[in-house]
Specification:
Elements lengths: L19 E6 L2 E6 L5 E5 L7 H14 L3 E5 L3 H16 L6 E5 L3 H7 L1 H6 L2 E4 L8 H16 L4 E6 L5 H12 L7 H22 L7 E6 L3 H14 L3 E4 L5 E2 H17 L5 E2 L3 E2 L8 H12 L8 E4 L10 H23 L7 E5 L5 H7 L2 E4 L8 E6 L2 E7 L3 H23 L1
Parallel strand pairs: 3-4, 3-11, 4-5, 5-6, 6-7, 7-8, 8-9, 9-11, 10-12, 13-14, 14-15
Antiparallel strand pairs: 1-2, 15-16, 16-17
Helix pairs in contact: 1-2, 3-5, 6-7, 7-8, 8-9, 9-10, 11-13
Length: about 425
């Protein structure tokens, strides 16, 4: 049966509806929520007492694209080093805001070490770890008072591995009285959301500006995260921090984070993200920043680095030339981005194609800003190059890779260098 021919609706992430917080250091203002871009953040795994080592890793994460970096503040010795970490970063010209991660003793550290409280740009508070019974509200209040005194935003971060056990027990008791009790997992969801929103409301009653409160409810399961954040976003309009806790390492952690965050971001949920990867032996901490950036870029929410399209290879591409060239180009573009962001505005949106044979090579190359279609097995040793959708020239011989590399550099200078001159 014939159906009316209607245009296919394009897919776009839904708009977000959260309030907007500001994380500040000096003249650097990183907005979170509202109409701000979804922000990328990360966390060091150095001993904060090692001020130099921590500052170096913060610098590496910032250069990789992390717009806020969290550091552990767990002891008096660590709190005492925070101002020196900030000083080292300022000397290196790294103005990325620092977030203090507090558990158990944050109320004392923020009170006893005012220089630490001042040097940090945001505090992470876990309401499950601020004290029990009568101490809970008092110690939570001390941290909120410090945030207001120093004009800092807070992230109230609930984690299902460290939930307020008194709150959870109360909800379990209530659940047992229901005619049809909920599954225990659903009660856990309710505890996470109740703890986060209830803590935010308590902070506001203490005088905290609600716009300066960011919430998170961390779990380690993909479907759990989706369920919790959908309901969290439905019940409140605080800015939301997304991320799986203990996502894992390697492929598992990458895929789980991409799936969970991708679904929520597409639904307009989430204002700042972190991919919590366990680094594999020898792997740089910056890998989690790269993956978080790729998630946002894949969804079309932001652009961080020129994208390289490359075919997966098949029986027509027994030569590894296109694989090597694709990796060389991708590595080169990423390495140059810290300089190019300032020198060539807009270059992060450029698309490069490195294809392996005649089947899809020319067509895919035409869709890119600049592309090359390398010869497949048995094809003539010629590689047409396409620039802005038009065939520009054909490369031949043994130096195709080097010549194309130079063509890419010339294209960037010609196209984006002109933009810099007129900016």
């Amino acid at each position: 049966m014939d159906q009316p021919c209607l245009p296919i609706e394009p897919a776009f992430p839904k708009p977000r509806r959260s309030r907007q917080a500001q994380t500040v250091w000096g003249s650097r203002i990183v907005t979170v929520g509202g109409d701000a871009p979804v922000r990328v953040q990360s966390m060091t795994n150095t001993d904060t007492v090692d001020a130099i080592g921590t500052a170096i890793q913060v610098k590496e994460l910032a250069i990789a694209g992390s717009e806020m970096v969290r550091i552990t503040v767990n002891t008096p010795e660590a709190a005492a080093q925070v101002p020196y970490i900030r000083e080292q970063l300022d000397r290196m010209g790294i103005d990325v805001p620092l977030i203090g991660d507090f558990h158990y003793n944050g109320h004392r550290l923020l009170t006893d070490y005012p220089a630490c409280a001042e040097a940090l740009s945001k505090y992470r508070i876990n309401p499950g770890n601020v004290g029990k019974g009568d101490k809970h509200d008092r110690q939570f209040g001390q941290m909120i008072e410090a945030a207001m005194r120093w004009n800092k935003p807070v992230r109230i971060g609930v984690n299902w591995g460290s939930l307020d056990q008194e709150l959870l027990a109360g909800l379990m008791d209530t659940n047992s009285l229901r005619p049809e009790p909920w599954d225990a997992r659903l009660v856990m969801y309710e505890a996470l959301i109740t703890s986060a929103i209830g803590s935010a409301q308590l902070a506001e009653r203490m005088g905290m500006d609600g716009n300066q409160i960011i919430l998170s409810c961390k779990v380690s399961g993909v479907q759990d995260l989706i369920a919790v954040y959908r309901e969290l976003a439905r019940r409140c309009d605080y800015a939301l921090h997304l991320g799986l806790t203990e996502a894992g390492m390697g492929t598992k952690g990458t895929v789980a984070s991409a799936v969970a965050l991708g679904i929520l971001l597409q639904e307009g949920i989430g204002d700042t993200i972190r991919v919590s990867l366990t680094p594999q032996p020898g792997e740089a901490r910056t890998q989690e920043v790269v993956i978080a950036s790729e998630i946002l870029q894949s969804l079309g929410l932001r652009s961080f680095v020129p994208s390289v399209t490359a075919c997966p290879g098949c029986g027509r591409t027994t030569s590894q030339t296109f694989q090597v060239l694709a990796k060389e180009i991708d590595d080169y573009l990423r390495a140059q981005m810290p300089v190019w962001r300032k020198k060539y505005p807009g270059v992060e949106k450029m698309k490069v194609a490195v294809m392996g044979c005649i089947v899809n090579g020319p067509g895919e190359s035409k869709h890119a800003d600049i592309g090359i279609s390398l010869p497949g097995t048995g094809e003539a040793p010629a590689a047409p190059v396409f620039i802005d959708g038009q065939k520009a020239l054909t490369l031949r011989g043994d130096n195709i890779a080097a010549e194309f590399h130079q063509i890419v550099e010339n294209y960037i200078e010609k196209r984006f260098g002109q933009l810099a001159e007129t900016a």
